[in-house]
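hi! just following up on the protien thing from before. the input was this:
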Amino acid sequence: MNVPAAPPDPLQTDIVLRSPAGVRLPPVETVWFTAGDGFRLNFRRLRPVDGVPPRGPVMMVHGAGVRANLFCPPGIVTLPAMLSAAGFDVWMVNWRASIDLEPSEYTLDDAAVFDFPAAVSTIREITEHDTVKAVVHCQGSHAFTMSIASGLLPEVTRVVANSTAMTPKVRRAAAIKLPLAMATLGRLTNFFDPQFGLYPPSFAAKVMDFMVDVTHHECRNKVCKHSSFVYGVGFPTLWSHRNLDAGTHDWISGEFAHVPVSLFRQTLDCLVAKHLVPARDYREIPELLGIEAPRTTAKFTFITGADNRTFLPEAMRASHAFFNSHVPAGSPRHGFKEFEGYGHLDMFLGKHASVEVFPHIVEWLSEDP
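and the predicted 3d structure came back as:
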């Protein structure tokens, strides 16, 4: 088997998007900005297609240990491309979890307090648009939900959240595996990294690679198998192989890398509490987060794959119920949709997602407000 080259240096490989039929997409731009604590972040911006009535900005938030490029697999018409074709100004944020940025031992709190308020402010300043909409995924959804529920994103009016939000829950085997991993491998390394399957640099990395080789035989892609080991329980965990074309399955080898153990420790705390809990003592995050009413008027649509092996679909239904339990009388209620045949990340990478998933997201984001 050919071993892929090491992941590229940050932003050296541009995003190449496949256009919807008959549509000429503008080039992807890079826009740098500074988080509230001085951390340097950036956007990959895709402006709306020329001649299409503008619908305003939408921010896309990736999960942990990946980057903005993850929304742009090579073999399909992507969600950013479809949003641009529909008139949206698309801002794919590389928040501090991005593998394109300097590694740090961050928590959800850091992104909630420092990254997303600065990101929304930057979008509003550059676009001169009063409001922003958002598509958020996985740990990016956790951090974003923590931020918006704390009242830090009043300019965000519409959110589509995938896989998990306020009330994470995992499969029983994963709930057993995570504390064991924290007590063993988590003491040997500060980062878990699917790239260990290609380049294990330490004793802990070699141990992880051995464990993956022993337990995962579902495919020959080392990064795919290590991602399954890192992010839960499943063969694979993050998607169904039947939903990925061969090009996307090869491409993911360069799209997954370092995730700090600090994030997994906080995730464990959230799973025990059955809702998001802060790891820092930032005054901006309320003590009763996940219990008191979310401090936002934004309308959410919570989505998940029915075959999700990373976070259980029932957890997303619980987030939907939690937000709806705090909707004032007469206000629009939040939405929920479960997609049959999909898992965690194939909601964005699936070879048929442009037909079966993305049109729904474009429609929801096109609604007022």
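The longest strand covers residues 28-34.
DSSP finds twelve helices and ten strands in the chain.
cheers
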